[in-house]
Amino acid sequence: MTAPAQKRGLAHWFHRRGWSDVMIATPYVWLLVFFLAPFLIVLAMSFATRTPTAPPFSFGGEHPLLNLTGYARLFHDTLYIRAFVTSLLNAGLATILCLLLGYPMALALIRVSAGWRNVLLMLVILPFWTSFLLRVYAWMGLMGSNSWFNKLLTGAYNAVVPTDWALRAIPMMHSNFAVVLVTVYTYLPFMILPLYANLERLDLTLDEAAMDLGSRPLRVFWDVTLPQSIPGIIAGALLVFIPAAGELVIPSLVGDAARPMIGRVISDEFSAARDWPMASSIAVALLVLMVFPMMAYSHYQAKAQHDPTAKGTS
To answer: Helix, strand, or coil here: 58?
Structure first.
């Protein structure tokens, strides 16, 4: 049997046995089992009432079937309001810094030779080859009061400020500064890679044509390159902002316990306070809050597909 005949026979067997339907259905089953079902469990738990029993929640009986106390506390308890605001501010600042650092790096990747491009891409991905927790612990060592990194920065600071303002060590640990710094380091590749994938598809001859017509390099970037890279910017921003807003490990290890982010609040409610309904209410609220950026991105993509003249689609 010839190779084309074998391929046709294999395709016939594949479709006759229904394996194509199985493979198509597999991602949906995965989402149903590992995303939708757990979400429905957490959603139901958010309407329960906290009890001292095990499990520490209950529905119906002497307790209301739908208890909205947890959701009501989100709007008047300053702990949760402050945690949400802190999370959004830290995640937003980290996203902006990742964009400012990642865009030039992604732009440089598409302008170097193919050999150097592979090396630089490997260096971008290299941190993923080591443990995430180990990298956070490394930053904890660098930001400690007795570390060489802190002493170096302290010496540089003391050299340019008056003697009255001199410091023995710069207080970096257990602060929002430390959270944003480690978050930027951790999620920077998530900004670079979507930007690189988007910029790589751009037609560089458009930049050359604009410069031939008399535009300066900065103007070419602003009018030609930047509008075409908006989809990559949005994708990278979402990949950084959404996980950064719900981050748990980084705020727990290097953050300020007096100003916790929402991920740590959820963890504390589940473990220390054993208030599972309240923790579930916070988790559902955070998920709903993170859905809005995804909806905005989907709306932007749909609009761009229906409007070929929109910026970033040319």
So the answer is: strand
Among 303, 196, 238, CA closest to 313: 303
In the chain, where the domains are located: 73-306
CA pair distance 16, 130, nearest whole angstrom:
45
Instruction: Tell me the pTM.
Output: 0.82
Residue ranges in 147-229 assigned as alpha helix (H): 148-160, 176-200, 205-212, 217-220, 226-228
Contact criterion met (CB below 8 Å) for 195 and 106: yes
pLDDT digits (tens, 9 = 90+) for 206-245: 776 777 676 777 777 787 778 888 888 998 999 999 999 9
DSSP string across 78-143: HHHHHHHHHHHHHHHHHHHHHHHHHHHHHHHHTTS-HHHHHHHHHHHHGGGGS-HHHHHHHHHHHH
Helix (H, G, I), strand (E, B) or coil at 144: coil
Classify residue 230 as exposed, middle or buried by CB count within 10 Å of its CB (0-12, 13-18, 19+).
Answer: middle
> Buried (b) or exposed (e) across 66-96, using 16+ Cβ within 10 A?
ebeebbebbeeeeebebbbebbbebbbbbbe
Which pLDDT belongs to residue 250? Answer: 93
CATH 1.10.3720.10 fits 73-306, yes or no: yes
- Cα 303 to Cα 246: distance, rounded to the nearest angstrom: 29
